Write the structure tokens for this entry.
Amino acid sequence: MNIYDNIQKKVYQWHSQHPEGIESFVDNIIRESNNETVQKLNDFVDYLTMYGLKDHLPNAYIDAKYHLKEKAIENLDASPDDKTKAALYDWLKICINTQKDINYDFYFEKNNLNREEEVKTILFGNGKLRKIFKNRDWQIRLKTVADWFLRRYNGEIARDILRSHQNFDCWDNLKLFYPRMIVAIIVGLLALMTGQEIWDLPHNISGRITGVIYGPIAKFWGWHLSDAYSNLVSLIGLLVIVFFFYVLSVLYLRYECYNIIFDTKAAGCRARKVGGRGLFASLILSTLICYAIGPISGTKEVMNPATYYSCQAGLPVFKNIIFFASAALFIGIFMQVFWEKETITEPL
């Protein structure tokens, strides 16, 4: 007798003991809903596990786990026993499982369940972390759940979890700023600041934009713009380029996020938040680097060391900062794509 025959024998045995059928057993137990419900569901899960049936009857197994979680939440106000804690932990593992499992995906889709909402229902009551999860036994698990939310671009829930953690430290706080993205931005900045030609690029671009706009005006109408208006036109043109880099970055982040959560609206909202935080970090890093090595790396026409740190160099330096910030974010994100399989928000 092979393994499959033995499994079929166990299924037939179950049918003989329970005429209602193995697939409908959970529904019948929940419909009865008495003091023995939890015990019967646990016995059912143990039966499927012991005889290797859970992979052959995945819907019945997952359904039993789901209803055990529901019963566990109902009993959280009382002193939770080991079985209640196990039910919550088992359903958490199912929800945050990063391995692609068609059975779990089908169950969540069929029952219109959202993994993130299920996790939040378990962890939070009345907007606060439930008391049971503040015990030392749950601390490492909570960090794992927070990392899972970060991976899904949901920094708000990750922050709520980490800051409810008893051992919240500086490294946990750093996670909320997406260190993998910051490293990618630094790499992008270093790739940009390798030659004088690149330092001059934003000024050349803004100069060309001014020429394109101002040239026809001067030729046909004979108008001459003052230096102030000319600088304003060139700056606006450069800001358009900067915005273009930012939009490209956010579009990729949205694509990556959507492939994880499969929610177009939520993916767009989360991508904009992550992209905005990345651009803010990139602006800070770009400012520091520009003022640190600008006079050394840039050409004297643009980055004159004699005036670089004075007010006279305000506009040229600002052009470099915003151009490098947006371009480094764009380059860093796409370099991360080729280097790693993890998302840009994945904790290091």
Remarks:
- The chain is about 70% helix and 0% strand.
- The radius of gyration is 29 Å.
- Residues 94 and 104 are 8 Å apart (CA to CA).
- Strands lie at 124-125, 128-129.
